[in-house]
Amino acid sequence: MRELPVVGRPPAERADAAHNRRRILRAAADLIADRGPEAVSMDEVARAAGVGVGTVYRRFGDRARLVFAVIDDREREFQAAFLQGPPPLGPGAAPRDRLRAFLHALADRTEEQADLLLMAESDPPEARFREGSYHLYHRHLVMLLGRIRPDADTAYLADALLAPLAANLFLHQRRTRGMSLDRIKAGLDALAEGLIG
Question: Which stretches are labeled DNA-binding (predicted)?
Answer without folding.
Answer: 41-60
